Amino acid sequence: MTGRPSDNVILFPKTVEYYQFELTRMLETERYGEAIRLLQHLLSFQHQDERVREEWLALLDWLKTMFPEELLSQAEHEEEELTEAELLRNHLSAKERDDEGYALKLLDMLDQPQSVENMMLALDQLAFLEHAAINGRLGKWITAREQHPSIQFKVLQTLKNRGVTGPLQMTKHGETFVVDVEDTPVSFADFPAPVTEIIDRVQDISELTQPALAYFAQETWNEFLAFIYGTALYRQILRQDQACADVWAAAFHLVLLENIFQNGDKEEILDLYGITSDLMFQWEQAYRMIQLFADLTFSRSRGG
Fold first, then answer.
1. Half-sphere exposure of 117 (CA within 13 A, CB side)
2. Are strands 167-172 and 175-180 parallel, antiparallel or unpaired?
3. Domain ranges of the chain
């Protein structure tokens, strides 16, 4: 026993199943640093299945051996990321010189049946290419019809990184709205305070009651923000007061418990966040919206 909060936390089968899926996605998209950090986090907990723990230890050892640069200090890691971005830009510039149609091939990929992960990889490359058609094609593509929420958000980030400004009309969940490209958060840390306060509240509460939830809460909240970005619901959250932040945090926390750990005490959660009877209507609305998102997200992660 080390005395850390995670010592008495056990990862149950449904939780392990989700994290296995997340690790697979990280490896498939070559997010090795994230995979290392997730494995280190998971291995700090107890496990019902020792075989899973051994597999994760073996995978972590392999990642450390194959990608030792991911183990550098945070300051070095940030500096390295910049270098990698420069290397990627140089690499893609060379590919453009060798194949003038390379950018167009990536753009054409977006019109073909692709996994979300493959489309994300294409957009990561398009952010660094110089072809004159990229901005116009991406803007036209994202406004022509509704796309996967994560892809919509990634396109907006790509356009902002490419220096594009101005309004775009989009459709999400059947709702049509306008967003200004320059307002798009480049990273999830760039979201306005009313949005980040919600996940901060969940993190604070979960550290006390369910430490194993912490990593998963942040990742899932990021996906939820992409799911609602630009919509009337997102704008509503931006206008909220502190009480509404607690409402959304409590709803999000309960949905996570129900979907990850297959349990969750509604009354306990409401009490932890101080949700009184006069806030129950808003809480029910928030819960329904987050549960709609969870039904889509968790069914996909389970292969449903």
1. 9
2. antiparallel
3. 5-70, 72-183, 188-301
